[in-house]
Amino acid sequence: MASLDLLTPHLSKINIPSSQQLVYKDECVYSFDNPESETGLYVSLTSFLGFGRNYVEQYYQKTGNAVFLHIAREKQPIPEQEQTGDGPEKKITRLAIGVEGGFDPDSGKPKFTYTDHYNVVVLPGFHTFPWPNDALPEVVKKSVRGVLDAESPFKKAEMAALQGTWDGEKREVSVHAFNLTQLDNGVKIPPTGWKCAKCDLSNNLWLNLTDGSILCGRKFFDGSGGNDHAVEHFRATGYPLAVKLGTITADGKGDVFSYDEDDMVEDPHLAEHLKHFGINVQQLQKTEKSMVELELELNRRNGEWNTLQESSSELRPLHGPALTGLNNLGNSCYMNSVLQVIFRMPEFVRRFVDGAPEIFATFPADPVNDFNVQTAKVGVGLLSGRYSFPDEAEGGQRGISPHMYRQLIGKGHPEFMTKRQQDAHEFFLHFLMLLERNSRNKPNPAECLKLLVEERIECSESHNVVYNSRAECHLPLPVPLAAATNVPQVRDYEARRAQAEASGQRLDPSQVIRPHIPFTSCLESFMKEESVEMFFSAALNKKVTAHKTTRLATFPDYLLIQLKKFTIKEDWTPAKLDVAVEMPWEVDLSCLRGMGLQDGETLMPSAAPDAPAIQLDENLLTQLLDMGFPVEACKKSLYYTNNSGMEAASNWLMEHMNDWDFANKFEPPGSKSADAGVSIPVDPDSVEQITGMGFTAAQAAQALRATGGDVARALDWIFSHVDQMEEQPPASDRKQGCRDGAEKYRLVAFISHMGTSTMVGHYVCHILHEGRWVIFNDNKVALSENPPKDLGYLYLYERL
C-alpha cells in the first residue's frame, strides 16, 4: 500500500459534499465510461465530477485536483434457478417505452448481483488506498462517505422529469365532479344488456352522469369505434361527464370523459354518481378496454408497429463504429433517433467528433452543463465503437445512455425537460437553436441544412409582384389524401375490416392497406398557388386578393424533409394520417427552383403612407390567448377573419397550425414592413434594441434575419459571427449567404413514428451506412432487410 504521506499535500483541496451537492458517480462527464467499465470510474473528491480512465489524468493536469474515489462494479448474473419474482407477463397499459406501465426494454433479461469495490486514488501515479480504511485522514473519510451516500443526479433528474409525465391513467380531477347536476328522472341502469339509445351498437358505450343516457362513443381515426352519439348528446344538452360502461371497477374507478373540458378526467365521486342510477360499483367488474388499451390495440391492429420495427424479419445485430445504440431513458426515442441522424452529416462529425479533443481540452468548470462538451460526448460515443459490442449478459448491445445530454438539452424547456413523448421534428429544431447559440467563434454545422425559401405574391388586379424570402432548415411537405392512387382498395379493406370486427374477428395486421400517396403529389401540393385574402396592394392603395407561390431559392448540401402527417381532426383532437407516401431513393427537385424577379415583372411599390391601420378585437384576442395560441398567430386569425368571432378565428388557427410562419411576427400582407423585396423583413424596434448595445444597424439586421427576428438569439448570433460580419458585409445577392448546388439528392436516413399522435408512440430510424440500410431502434442496431421508407416522418437527403 502506498504511503499516506502522498495525501498530505492535497488535503486542503478535499471537500465534503453537502446534501445539495451533485455527485457524478454514475458516469464520466466526458465519455460513457462508468463503474462497470473495464477501468471503472474516478470521482474527484474536490469537484465530485466523475472521469473515465481516458480523461482523469487530463483533468488532474488541468486542475491539480489529485485525489479520487475509484469505483469498480462487478456484475454477475444470478443462476436462473435462484431468480425470484417470476410471474405472468406484465400487462402493457401505456403507449410508451421504458416507463412504468409501458413496454419494458429490459424484460426477459437475466437478473444480476452487483458488487462495488472502492479505492482512494492519488495522481500522478495512481497510488491506491483501499476503502474502508481507518488510517485515512478524517477529511478523506468524510468526503468518501459523502460521495457514497449521495443520491445519483440521474435519479434526481428522473424524478423531476416524471413529475410532468402523463402516465395514461393519472388524470386531472374534473371541475364538474364536486357539483355535478344529476336529474331525478327515475332512470335506473340494468347490470347488463346495454345498447346505444340512438343506434344498435352494444360496445363502446358511455353513460351520461347527468341524465343516465347510454350512447355510443366517437369514431376512431381508423373508422372503428362508435357513431359519435354521446358527444352529440353533450352538444345538445351541455351535460358534461360520461363514464365508459365496462371500465368501472369495484373500487369506484373507470374511464370518465369531460366533454366540456375535452379530456379524460378523474371523478372522485364516481361511485356516488353511479349510485344515483341504481349502480352498485362493488358488484361491477371491468369488461371493456380502457381508452389507453384501445389506442394500443389500434396501433397494433394497423400493423405499423411491426412494419416499422421490421418485426417479421430475423434482424441480424450489428456492432462497431457508427453502429452504437442509445438506451431508451423513458420516452427518449424521439431524441435517440434525431441524434443518430445528426451524426450522419460530415459537418457535425467534424465539429463534435473530430473536434472533440479540442473541445474536451478546455476542461470547463461545469462540463455537465456545457453544450459543446456534452454534444461531443454523444457524438464520440455513437461513432467511436467503444460502446458498441455484443453483451451476452445484457442480451444485446449495451449501447450508451445519454442521461446528462437529455437533462442539459431539456433544461428550462416545458416539454423536453419531461419524460413525455415529444415530436422528433420539434426536437430537431430545438437542437438546431441550441447549436446556433453555442457556435460562437466556430462554424455552425447546421449551415449544411440551411435553405432559402422564396415566396412570390402577385396582386390579382395590378399584377405587381412581391418577392419575400426566409431561411429555413427543413422542407415541410403536405400529404394530400385526395391524391391516393389506391382508393378502391382502401375502401374494400376498410369494409372487410369493419365486417370482421362486427363478427368479433380481426384481419391480419400485416395485410393492412393504406392510402398510397405519390411523392410528386406532395411536391405539387407544396407548389400550388394559394390565395392571399386581404392583401394590401400598394399599387392600388387598397386590399385585394393576391396569389402566392412558394419555391426554393437555394438547395442545401443536406435536405431535411418533413411529411406533415400530424393534423387536427374536426373535434380538435390530434391525429396522424395513416398513409404510405412513395418516397424516392433518389430525386431531382429542380421543379422547386425559384428564379426571382423575371423580365416583364413589376415590383410592388413601397406601401403607401396612408395604408389602413390594423384593427383587432381586443376581447377576442384575449380569449384566443387564453386558449394557449401564440399572440402573433392570434393576430393573424383575427385579421384574416375580419374579427368575425371566436369560432371563425379558432377555426383559422386550427387550419394553419402547421404553417411555417404560424408564430412569426405578424405583418399584414402587402404592408410596408412585409414588402421587403428579396430581403427578410426585420422589426425596427428590435434593430434599435440591438444597436443600443453598441452594434451597427447592419449587424443587427443581419443577425435578426438569421434568427427569425428573435432579439436574444440575434445577440448570440452576433457574438458567434463577429469575425465574419467584420470581414464580409451582409450578402446582397438573392441567396443571402446560403449555400446552393444541384437539385439532385439521394436518401441517406429517415425517422419513422409509430402511434396516433406525436404525444404517444415510438420512434425508430433507418440509416444508410456503408452501402447498407441499418435500423436503429434505441439500443437495438441491426441490418435492415426491408427499410419501410414509405412510412417515415422525417427524411434526410444528401446531394448527389
UniProtKB/TrEMBL annotation:
Enzyme Commission number(s) of this protein: 3.4.19.12
Active site positions: C333 (nucleophile), H762 (proton acceptor)
Cellular component GO terms held in the UniProt record: cytosol; nucleus
Stretches that traverse the bilayer: none
GO-annotated biological processes: protein deubiquitination; proteolysis
Keywords: Hydrolase, Metal-binding, Protease, Repeat, Thiol protease, Ubl conjugation pathway, Zinc, Zinc-finger
GO molecular function: cysteine-type deubiquitinase activity; zinc ion binding
CDD domains linked: Peptidase_C19B, UBA1_UBP5_like, UBA2_UBP5
Reactions this protein catalyses: Thiol-dependent hydrolysis of ester, thioester, amide, peptide and isopeptide bonds formed by the C-terminal Gly of ubiquitin (a 76-residue protein attached to proteins as an intracellular targeting signal)
Residues that bind Zn(2+): C196, C199, C216, H229
Domain UBA: 615-656, 681-721
Source taxon at top rank: Eukaryota
Domain UBP-type: 172-281
Gene3D superfamilies: Cysteine proteinases, DNA helicase RuvA subunit, C-terminal domain, Zinc/RING finger domain, C3HC4 (zinc finger)
Residues in USP domain copies: 324-800
One Pfam family of this chain: UBA
Recorded family membership: Belongs to the peptidase C19 family.
PANTHER family hit by this protein: UBIQUITIN CARBOXYL-TERMINAL HYDROLASE
Protein name: Ubiquitin carboxyl-terminal hydrolase
Source organism (scientific name): Leptidea sinapis
